[in-house]
Amino acid sequence: MAIPTLETERLILRGHTRDDFPAYAAMWADPEVTRFISPPLSQEDAWAKFMRVFGHWALTGHGFWSVHEKETGRRVGETGFLSVKRDLVPSLEGLPEVGWAFDRPAQGKGYATEAVRAALAWGEDRFGRTRFACIIAPNNAPSLNVAAKTGFREAVRTTYKGAPTVVLYRDP
């Protein structure tokens, strides 16, 4: 499957390449980036997560884009769609799940909102008029803000892997 390239005013969203791995691994090793998502990842664990990106596109026809600044070409983060068999109540099975993560120097610049909007526009074409979901830690104010700006609304508070979690939906 050819991964589409998306462009916004300041960003290019494109398929990950092997050359993206050093920046990817550094981002996922940063405790400030991962503090609401997971423990920081070792290079081995980052590689496994990186490989999952390719599997999503190959098996489902959707996945995560590597997000780059147009001006510099620098990788600033990632966003896209997941198909994860989460042990979560309520189940997200069958719903396109949206996710994002951005490197510390890119945070606070509006890049996440800009990139998620582009991904959602693509997703509306790909999935049609459907409900989108995302999960966010309740104390992750920046991501909750991105979710609100992109049309997500809190549906329920639950627990995922022993941690408090907010499930949000974006309805058509």
Helix content: 25-40%
Output the helix-strand order: EEHHHEEEHEHEE
Structural class: alpha+beta
Low-pLDDT sequence parts: none
What is the approximate shape? Answer: globular
What's the gyration radius in Å? 15 Å
Per DSSP, what share of the residues sits in E-state strands of 2 or more residues? 25-35%
Strand order of the largest sheet: 1-2-3-4-5
> For the residues shown, what is the average pLDDT?
96
Distance between the termini: 26 Å
Verbal overview:
With about 170 residues, the protein is an alpha+beta fold. The chain has helices at about 20-30, 30-35, 45-60, 110-125, 140-150, and strands at about 5, 10-15, 65-70, 75-80, 95-100, 130-135, 155-160, 165-170. Helix content is about 35%, strand content about 25%. The protein has a five-stranded antiparallel sheet with strand order 1-2-3-4-5, sandwiched between helices. Strands 6-8-7 form a three-stranded antiparallel sheet, with helices on one face. Helix 1 (about 20-30) packs across helix 3. The longest helix is centred in the N-terminal third of the chain and has 18 residues, at about 45-60. The chain is globular and about 40 Å long. It starts with 5 loop residues before the first strand and ends with a strand. The mean pLDDT is about 95.
